[in-house]
Structures are given as structure tokens and as C-alpha cells.
Amino acid sequence: MAAASDCLFCKIVAGDIPAEVVHVTEHAVAFRDINAQAPTHVLVVPRAHYRNAAELAHGDPEATAELLRVAAAVAEAEGHEDYRLVFNTGESVGQSVFHTHVHLLAGRAMTWPPG
Known about the structure:
Elements: H1 8-14, E1 21-24, E2 28-32, E3 40-46, H2 53-59, H3 61-77, E4 84-87, E5 102-106
Antiparallel strand pairs: 1-2, 2-3, 3-5, 4-5
Helix pairs in contact: 2-3
């Protein structure tokens, strides 16, 4: 899918908006969340624009797997064996940017169930 002209994450992927990028592959970009909820809080996004995780899974299953591979690589590079991955799909569960992204959270104890 093409980039969406009004999408914050598409603009970060394109380099039009600065971000602290920590990992890049052909199909994904990982950058630090500006509203960190843990000592390590990185967002991993596909370069292509899909509105949510379900759309990405249907439209590009390999890119979905790439997000998980990149998240694992970032966690390892930052020294974390334990980490949490979160996909929010829909406004009522906390998705605020409608470009698929997975949150990588690590570096502190986390409880279950989450918020």
C-alpha cells in the first residue's frame, strides 16, 4: 500500500518528521516512542501503510512477521530477554495513530492484565 499523505508514521518512515530511529530493514522501521511507558519503548512500523494489524496481516503476512523479527532484534540489542509486544487495533483500545505498529516495552516489571 502507498503511504498516506496525512499519516504521522508514514512521514517518519519517509524521513519528513524526525524520530530516534533504532533499527531499519527493507520493510520496517523502529523508533523510540516519544511518550515512553517503559525504559525501553520502541514502535516498530511497516514501511507500507496499513491502518491496523488485521489489515497488515491480510495484506502482507510477511511484513507482519518482519515486525516481530525487528522487535526481537531491538530487544536483544538493548539487552532485554524479557519484553512485551502490544498491537492496538481500534480507537477504543488505545490506537491513536492509524498506521500499523507494535509497541516493544521492556526494562521494568509489567503486570497482567494490562490497563
